[in-house]
Amino acid sequence: MSKNQKTNVKRQAVSPPQKPVQKTVQNKIPHKGKTNTKKNKFSFIKLAKISAIAAVAALILVVIALLITGLRFSTSVSDDSVRAKFFGWTEKGEYYKGTLYFSGEGEGTATLNAKKKTISYSNGDTYTGEMSRGFPNGEGKMVYANGSSYVGSFINGVIDGKGKMTYANGSSYDGEFKDGKYSGNGVLTESDGTVCTCSFSDNKKNGAATVNYADGSVFIGTFVNDAKSGYGEYTAANGDSYKGNFENDLFSGQGTYTWENGEFYTGMFENGNINGYGTHTRKDTSILVGYFENGEYVRTETPEDEEDTDTENTDNE
């Protein structure tokens, strides 16, 4: 071996080792683009969850804050079964300011303001006064859209107690109410000027009464379901008068009718007229005793005569 060859061998021997193939190492290194996508997706989901949790927490805080300030959704029912749903602010358990949603007979809405003591209904009615849980309760005034009005006592949304109802046509009732109806003692003034001071029940005259009619006539007696019934005294505007029994608003049964000229009839009445046995004393003091039909004298027999006639007829049979 030559010297040069030896030198080459040495050089070859000290030559740096060949670099290993990078192929295997490169296969183990993940692709940079794929790694960024996963990280971005994870970050978005995490951010969405955090945002949702924050939104729920914020909503809960808002609700809590509103509840602390008194905002409520509540339901109450009046004494006449009208249901009211209230959404608004409350104070010490009472509705303070908000909107009422009614169902049942009083369907509609209303705006309530307890500070001003007002309830304004969607149908045009307006209430001013004491209230409780969305209904008039205590003393107050209701002005109706039709022009009528009521001033007096309410119990849980219903007219109850003493008060005065004034109607759009000019008539009025001043007295006691029960469940929204005339009940007890009161004064009913009709639109024509007739005034009835009477005991009432279920919106009708029932009991002792004094009626001063618009034409000047007067009745003192008793009523049953708005009709004169039982003993009473009636004085007509022309001076005629009647004292006796009434039935269904008419003279009926035993009574005395006196004309303004001094004549009078005492006897039986039927359907508002002289019918049956009686005595008519005329102005000249002459007397008719016998039977009358619709105010006309028809025969002179007495009740005893008629009884005898009936007996004879029975015997003949």
Structure description:
The model is unreliable at 1-15 and 20-33 (pLDDT under 50). The chain is built from four helices and 22 strands. The chain is of the alpha+beta class and 317 residues long. It has a domain at 66-168. The chain is 22% helix and 50% strand. The radius of gyration is 49 Å and the shape is rod-shaped. It has helices at 3-14, 23-28, 32-69, 303-316, and strands at residues 71-77, 83-91, 94-103, 108-113, 118-121, 126-132, 135-143, 149-155, 158-166, 172-178, 181-189, 195-201, 204-212, 218-224, 227-228, 230-235, 241-247, 250-258, 264-270, 273-281, 287-293, 296-299. The N and C termini lie far apart (187 Å). The protein has a 22-stranded antiparallel β-sheet that branches. Strand 13 (204-212) and strand 14 (218-224) form a beta hairpin.
